Amino acid sequence: MEAFFLFFLVFFGSAIGTSVKIVNEKNEFLVERLGSYNKKLTPGLNFTVPILDRVVFKQTTREKVIDIPPQSCITKDNVAITADAVVYWRIIDMEKAYYKVENLQSAMVNLVLTQIRSEIGKLELDQTFTARTEINELLLRELDISTDPWGVKVTRVELRDIMPSKAVLDSMELQMTAERKKRAAILTSEGQRDSAINSAQGDAQARVLEAEAKKKAAILNAEAEQQKKVLEAKATAEALSILTEKLSSDNHAREALQFLLAQQYLNMGTAIGSSDSSKVMFLDPRNILSTLEGVRSIVGDGALDEGLEAALDKVDRHRAG
């Protein structure tokens, strides 16, 4: 009797111990009773019926990651590449995750590989490198829809490496080299064109500035020449006025003037005689001044005025000396 009682206590204690289930935070347990789904155990202290109840599935609801191995894919332009990815996901419905699919992890990996092949097959090789963000978004949307019946939420999909074959890489390298040479040639030609344009513009501006400088110089020379003539005319007029006053009061000055006019007259005769159109002149030395009027009609007023101006200059120098 005592042995039976002891056996009953041991059996009852072990049954009580197995019926108490403690579930950690972010974990959930599925319990079956006599082979059928009974309930889900949430974090905390839970109790089950000994012998009748059995925990069949334990899983976390935290986010998990699946590392997708490198997979061979064919692009739209028939180029073979290798791509791998990482997928972040979590279980949102524990019952579906256990009863809707037999091996959730394996199903997820195969589904991701299939979707990667499908999406890359829609793109050309160049697009796979430039449209990686778009590919990630498409994979995320498609995987989230496909895994919804399994009680799974795909939170993020990232393609890590997209590697073409060695032959394709060599071809891409040659293409990139040719493109760089093309860009360098274009930049060089544009630089030469800009340099030629700048040189032409500089030459044109230099010619304009030179022409403006010559124009200003010619204007200044003309103004200076005009001012010179005005000053010479004033000086001549003043000299004649002074000479007239001197002649009226000084007999020596009058005689000197007659001498100088006669000398200038002789010099003028020499110049006229040496010219191409020579003239015959009859000169009376005793009356040079009376002859000047006759010379004026032959050579004109200009030559006589020049002789007069030279005579005036000599008179001034004589008076100053």
From TrEMBL:
Q: Does the keyword Metal-binding apply?
A: no
Annotated signal peptide: none
Q: Which keywords label this protein?
A: Membrane, Transmembrane, Transmembrane helix
Q: Which InterPro entries match?
A: Band7/mec-2_domain (IPR050710), Band_7 (IPR001107), Band_7/SPFH_dom_sf (IPR036013), Band_7/stomatin-like_CS (IPR018080), Stomatin_HflK_fam (IPR001972)
Domain Band, by residue range, is: 18-176
- Species, as recorded: Synechocystis salina LEGE 00031
Q: How does it sit in the membrane?
A: Single-pass membrane protein
Which family does this protein fall into?
A: Belongs to the band 7/mec-2 family.
Major location category of this protein = membrane
Top-level taxon of origin: Bacteria
* Subcellular location, record wording: Membrane
Name of the protein: SPFH/Band 7/PHB domain protein
